[in-house]
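Tokenised fold entry reproduced for everyone:
>
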Amino acid sequence: MRNKEEIQGRFKELQDRFGRGECSVSELEELELLMEDERSADHIQQHMYAELEEAQYPTVHTFNKSKLFDKIKGEIVVDKKEGKLRSLYLKLVQAAAILIVFVLGAGSLFVYERVTAEKPQPTSYCEIYAPLGSKSKVVLPDNSIVWLNAGSRLKYSNLFNQVDRNLTLEGEGYFKVAKNKKIPFRVDADHFIVEAVGTEFNVRAYKEDEAIVTSLVEGKVKLEHASEKIADNIYLNPNHKATFYKNKSKGNNRPRLIIRPNVDLSPNIAWKNNQLILNKERLEDLSVDLERMYDCKIHFNSEEIKSYMFSGTITDMGLNEILDVIKLSTPVNYEVKGKDVYIGRDNKRIGKFKKY
């Protein structure tokens, strides 16, 4: 018959082999028998107690001594067919933690958990860029979907959907947010923050634009600024559009933030479906979108024609096709040289058109 030291030594050996995944079926059966035998089980308790005293772990929970130890013994089952050992104790070992049970006084049993200290995970970032002339569709780690318009950039850390759901947007993005009430979804667009739980919205925040425009399609979002006080508890409901001007107005008392309800959002989100919906759009403003869509540079030969306006829907057209439509609708001519487009006034046709 083995003495206490032999039993404790063998238990420790089997425990270590299990932790390394090296136990055979016969060794698992031996470990089961050690826990079944009253005398060896008592020695094992003493072994656990000695480990605990040496390590001096803090208390986590308090349990009834006999009840818990009987539970540990009762849950040790060897599946001879699969060669697996299931137990409360050994499950925790397998998960990189050690459950230590020991006797203290005349009826208390304490459980301690020792977890291997891990180094903090270094922060890294993922950045997605939609080049000029193209769009990108991104599925985020939380299953949210983002469409990026041409010339746009999206950035988030490796902790996304673990610690937070924070993103940084430069340009324009349409967001279809997966629901997660515990971790809000936050888009930082040049320090203007759009926060949601589960919703669909569009944010336009190109650096060269004077304003950041948020259009809410579905759900509800909260608006705030990272460094400036706008107002308290600002929310958007569906079909609301918020326009935040980056710089304070000079002399015209224009509000920094304007919210418009019951807006037709089609022109704001049509880009996602490769469309442009225009309603009396100035050619100068339209040219900015065209430059991003087709990775070109548009030059106007006349200041006057910048104010010509264009209305209509552009769907899946090439650059030359769009320029032809503009030519039909306004008194202009155009010439394409590589990535440069030159638009000038057509004096022969000027009398046939009305300037809005």
